[in-house]
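User: Okay, second chain of the day. Same drill as before: sequence in, structure tokens out.
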Amino acid sequence: MVRWGKGCATILVAFLSAAASAQEGFDSSRVSADLLASGVYTDNFYYGTGDEPQEAAFGAVVAPRAAYKATKGRFDLLATAGAELGAFNQEPADDYEDASAGINTSWLATRRGRLDLRAGFERKHDPFGINRTEDATVRDQDLDIWHAAQGGLLFHYGAPEATLNAEVGVSALEKSYQTNEAATRFLDYTGTSLQYTLFYNFSPKTAMLFDFVRADIQFDEPFSAADARSGDEYRVRTGLKWLATGKTSGDLRVGVFRRQFDNSTATEQGLDWQANVQWAPRARTLLDLEAARGSQESYRADTNVNVTRSVTARWKQYWSARLSSQLSLGQTTTNFVGIARKDTAYNVRLGLDYMLSQSLSAVMAAESFNRTSNEPTSEFDRISAFAGIRVDY
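Assistant: Same drill. Structure tokens below.
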């Protein structure tokens, strides 16, 4: 972990140095960075279920982040880099070093045409007791560490005052596991998607939309010849999107989805939706509601895909110039297509942020996570607490 910590610090310094050197070539630019250091406690470190031993743990997490924003004429650039390093008083193998980097560009080629490009890379892990290891009784020597590379292109055509606007986008994702490969290589997959959206503008800030998405998922190495996880998913939706109009903004879409599998005649289909609404009833209050139907690629040999239905409500309150709080309530229901299992997870998190000075803040949070299931051996409860400081540069 020390080597990784030094490596992440070196990358962060190089990122800031390169960003500072590049500022001269842009009309305007800005570099920002912060470092969060916190102590962590959890009463169920390995996500043990009711019939498994539950072990408490203490640890420390350090998370540096940096961002670079720049503009030159009609070209906008955003580059980000970050890391999260965790060490705990359990087995040393459960310490982790995560990192991510990304770049987003937007080019207003003409008054009617805008081209957006994005690319990113993540190095992350699945904690023991989650996904592949949820039913394991023997801990691996290493965490399941994975890399994910993704990129996308989106072209928006239409003048702001035009009645009709359109967007066409393509994206690709590759996820591959780097450790415990004898067991994790079956989880590597690639995904590509094509999206087309047509907007009918009622006003410069409000539009009705029609949305079509096709996603293709291919697992690199199936569990067996009869593995039915690879396939295509189609979504057709209509809805309403509006930017900040007074106190609210949002994106509401509803329609249908259909999932087809390459090696199976079975299909999964039903109602599809996506909702994201922000409301600021007062100057210091922000409410956010998210709800969606989604798909998660399966980590089990007996499951085609996991279909999720989630809803999350967030309340952020600025009590004073120095003190703010964040409260979030979430529920996610997961259906394991191919078997009869159905899980429901509940999450409650309360955080406080107190500004000690212009660049130094004290942060703390408490979180409760509970999962119920029609498969009793999959149920667990977990309580965690965090406290630390954040330095802004």
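Residues 37 and 246 are 37 Å apart (CA to CA).

User: Thanks, on to the next one.
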